[in-house]
Structures are given as C-alpha cells and as structure tokens.
Fold each of these.
Amino acid sequence: MEETTVSSEFMPIPISEFVQGVTIPVDLYIRLGDEKFVMVGKAGAHSNVDQFKNYQNKEVAYLWVKKKEYYKITHQSITIAGIAITKKDLEGSKKATLITHSARAMFRQIETVGLDLETYNNSKLICDAVLGMVETHRSLTDLLGSLKAYSDQLMSHSVAVSALSVMIGQALGYEKKATLEKLSLGGLLHDVGMKALPPELLKKPLAMMVPEEIQLYETHSFKGMQMLQSLGIVPDDIVSIVYEHHENSIGQGFPQRLRDVKMHPLAKVVALADAYANLIIPNVNCPVPKNPREALMYIEHTLGIPYNREAFRALKRILEADRKAAA
Ligand SMILES: [Fe+2]
Ligand SMILES: [Fe+2]
C-alpha cells in the first residue's frame, strides 16, 4: 500500500458521485489522518460502488485523488457526455445532466488548480457537447430545468449562459461553427474571474453589498480576462466576451460603460444570455427564479431592454418557438 503525507497534493471527491462499473482513470485514496492517505484503488480498475458504500458506512464521505491528475476525471466525464450527446434515443434531460456533470468536474478543477491549459482544453470539449445538445435539444425549458437541480450555482449558470448564447446566436443567423463555438466557450467561461474573488463575497446578494464589496465584485470581468490572457492561446474574441459581459447597450454596465456600438458583437449576445440566465436559474440574487416568459417580460418592460435589441428579439423568437412546440 502506498502512503503519502502531503495533503495539499490531494483533493476530495464525494463518494456519492461515483457510478458503478466505470474505469477510474486515476489512483484513489482514502484519508486516514490529516497527512495520511492510503491508496484503495488503482488507475484503470473498475469502480466498485459496493466497496465505496462500505467506506460510507464507516463515515468516510470522500475518496481523494491527486490534484494534478484530476483533469483525467473531468476528461473522462466529458468523453461520456460527448458520446451520449450523439445518441438519438437518449432523452434531452439526460444529456443535459451528463453535460452539467462534466461541467461540475471542470469547475472543481478550476477551483483547485486554477484555469490552466488542461482545464481550458476540457472546457472546449464541454462546449462541443453543449453545441451538440443545443442542436438536438428542442425545448429550452427542458434544458434549463435540468440545470436547476444543481447546487453549484456558478456551474449551472455558466452552462445555461453557454447554451443560451449559442441559441441566441443561431436565432440571429450566425451559422459558422467557429462563431458558435466562441459563443459557447465565452458563455461557459464568462464568470471565470469569480474564482479569484473571496467565496464569502459570492454568497452575498448584490443588494446587501457595501460599495467596496461591489467594487471588488465588479473586478471579476477584468480578472477573468487576465486569467484567459495568461494562458496565451485564447482567441481575442473570447477574451473580449469575458471582459465585456457586464456591459450593456445603454452604457450603464461595467467596467468600461461601453455602449452598444462599442461592444464586441458576441459580447452583446452573452451579456443578454447572462442577464436572462440570472432571472431563470436560482442564484444568490434571485432565489425564486422567474419562468422563461416572465423573465423575458421583466427584461422588456421592467428593465426596458438595456441589451442589444436584435439579440433580445432573437431570444423572444426562441421562446415563441418553444411555446408553439409545447402547445
Ligand atoms: Fe459576471
Ligand atoms: Fe454571469
């Protein structure tokens, strides 16, 4: 049995997240003391949920993996989701669940190791799956419903923004795969800068923040841009989406107070998708979300559409088509 004593090298995964009979791509450990880990499963072995349940009975809630190997778990989860997306007979809600599952793994990876090249590559793969899902997933309501079940708010929000951005982009007539990929990836990573903020701040509703806290919160667009730029390979369009996702058409956004004409065209789409997702997926600012139609009315009548008008009309068309399909 291999033992090791550096706890900072490990990260926990709740035992409840393991499914039966899957090849585990990394070595698994249990933690016996603060600095003591014992290997209980070798990379390449099949997961044995009975064995894991046994640990749970002994009040072991987590299995531990080496941080530097965690990306392999994310990668595997994405591969499974990617295969599932292509299956015609699989329900839309199951596909959405698999995608959110892999997105959760990816966000956990960002939390642990930051946004590195492995994570970025994994997020690109998730976007492929999101694009595949948007293509086959007729009902927007269905997709958003699957996301609501997750307690990881940033993750659910980001996947929703990614999918919504692609849908709005398509409804605007964007057809090139490269453009839709940028919308999807920009949408998925738009709030990545939040990971650089204190977690306590993110648990606080905006309305409860003091001015200094709001100022700090508003740095997340800039921080996200920096994180992406530091990777050195992220296309400028995606960097702009992340930097400008809180701008709006009337120049009242942040950080630059850009107006519609100055905004990056794809950022206009993601800004609307972001605002809309915030109204329909539960989050700290909106614990009781609106239904898709109410949220649209809210943007139109209460806010007076402070977003790009064409993008807004495109979103309206999507919902209209959804309503007709459901009728
Ligand atoms: Fe944001
Ligand atoms: Fe956001």
Amino acid sequence: MRITDLRVFRMAAPTGGSTNWMFVRIETDEGIHGIGEASLQYKDDALEAELLDFRKFLIGKDPFRIDHIWTSLYRRVTWTGGAVTISAISAIDLALWDIKGKALGVPVYELVGGESHDRIRIYANGWFGGADAPESYAEKAAAAVADGYTAIKLYPFSGTQGARQDRLSRGTAVVKAVRDAVGPDIEIAIDIRGRMNMWSARRVAQRLEPYDLAWLEEPVMFDNVDAIAQLAREVNVPVATGEQLYTRWEFRALLEQNAVGIIQPDICHAGGMSELRKIAAMAETYYVMVVPHNSNGPISTVASLHLDMSIPNSYLQEVFVNWLPVYGEALTNPLVIEDGHCRPPDGPGWGTDIDEAALAKYPPVAYTPVESEPYLQF
Ligand SMILES: [Mg+2]
C-alpha cells in the first residue's frame, strides 16, 4: 500500500471564539483513507502549511511504517519541534493509525495493545456555560452529575497572574458551592490554565485545600517544569499539567521531577497515538496516571478514547460535553456516553469518520480580534 495524497479541511469550532477544527485526510492507492485532527486554534494557517510541506515526504510511502514516518518527519530537518511541527506530525500519525486499523479490519485500540479497560470514564468540561455566581455553578454542577458524570472540571479563577484577594475569595466561593452541590463522591478539578504566578498559585492551593480536589491544573505556566514541580511539592492539593508539552523528551523532564501524579498530554499536539503511548509508558514507570487533554474536535476525542482503552494507566478522559451535539453531526458514527462512560465507536480504525457533507453547516471562520487577550495580562 502507498500514500497517494494528503488533504486538509476545516470546520468552525463551537468554542465561542473565532477558531476552527482542522482535519487531515490521507489517501492510499488501495482506496483506504485515514483521518487525523490538527486543530491549533489561531495557528491554523501555519499548521496547514506545515501539513502540506510534509505532504511531499509522504507521497509514495508505505502508510504501515508509522514509527519510521514519525521519526523521519521529526528528524528530517535540523530545526524541529514546537507547536506547529508536532501538531502536524500528530495529525499525520493519527491518520496513519486509522488507515492501518481499516486495512487490517480492527479498531486502533486493538491494534496498539488491546483493551486495558471495558470503557472509559469521562470527566466533563463545558457543563458550566452561562454560570457566573456560585449558585448558578452549583445548579449546573448538580445537573452534570444528574447526567451521569462523576468527575467535572471548572475555571473559577479567571484574570491576571497576580491574584487579588477579592478574586481569590470569589473563586473559592464557587468551588465551595460546587462541592456542596455535588457531595463528597464527585471528583472536582480546577484549571488555572497557567494564568497565575507562584505567589498566586500558592494562595489558591491554600484556599482550596478543604474542598478535596482531584487536581489543580496548570497553576503556573508549563515552560519551567522545575517551578511547577516545586509548587506541587509545596502545596497540599494534587497538581496536574502537560497539555502544552510536546513529545517524550519534554515529558521526561517533568516526570523526572517526581512531583505530579497526573499528566495531561494532548493527542493532537504532543505527537499523536504513537507518541502518547510512549509518554504513557514512561509515566507508568513513575506511577503517574494519564488523563489526556482534549479541547479539540471529534477526531481528537475518538483517538483519545482509543488511547485510553489501550493503556493501563489511563484514568479519565476530558470531554467538552456541550460540544457533543456538534461531534454527533460531524461524525458518521457518533460517540455514545452512558453513565458518564464511553467507548470508541465500533468498527475498524477509529470506528467513525468525518461526514464532510455535514460540515457545510459549520463553515470555517476567520479570526476576529477580541478586546482582552488573557495570556497577555500580567
Ligand atoms: Mg487545561
């Protein structure tokens, strides 16, 4: 079998911002195609160009040689790595696993190791739309739990790096209201998105100690793993990180610190199915669990579920539950979540595909400037 073409297409993402989800479709001379996802928010154009640059190296190649292709794309040039290159490699890697699964007639999770789990527990993100006051968060959290979810995440501390007293109090009141509403047996994660400095993060952790958090996510930025490890050792709340790290080499530096119990690699950004399995195996040697980050589209979600099924140390899968209706429209074989759990759709490869005709309803959007760029506030 040989690769004959690589094509890129996009759809508007229901994220509330001007971002798209981007997919890559790789064709072969045997009529089998594979689908990968390459969403990169505001760097879509750069990512599309990178994918088309890689296209010339892929035409004529045997799509079964996945590790070899991964390494050749990563090592081919002297200056490699970074968001654009690794996201492009991730998308290609995903499409190649889909091709191989279809060609051999088995689901990807079967191909890469078989079932380590019967089904995957979902942690709900995006359940809080429109919530502002602690009472409305409490109401929506109770509704998510009534829908069957046993783990939920929220972002109650928006704003700048230095967290003022009033902001700390407001965020803490939201967490208290949510804990009171859902009871002691639901896992609650708080995501800071790297938007605090060490001083603020220490204060937040101190405030949140009584609420028995599953984890505090990216309390500080990802760039300095020594700093995040130092913080993780100091505070009495479990710290998780990893959604902005790439490849086994960046995760090595984090894992060697022995400071976090959960890592959150992203299958569309950290290197695809191949790389996440390697990262997960490394994590296993440090007794660390993998909770894949997933703020992307339907193929990201499906591919993450295949990974989760196949590795022993997966714990939860992130899903924006408010996007499930759009995932349902975009996928030929939709995801079914029951009792807060999910399996990949049945069938070879991913068990599903992108319904390109259905995407007509979601034409790609252009970037619209917004007044506040949160990452620029310090
Ligand atoms: Mg996050």
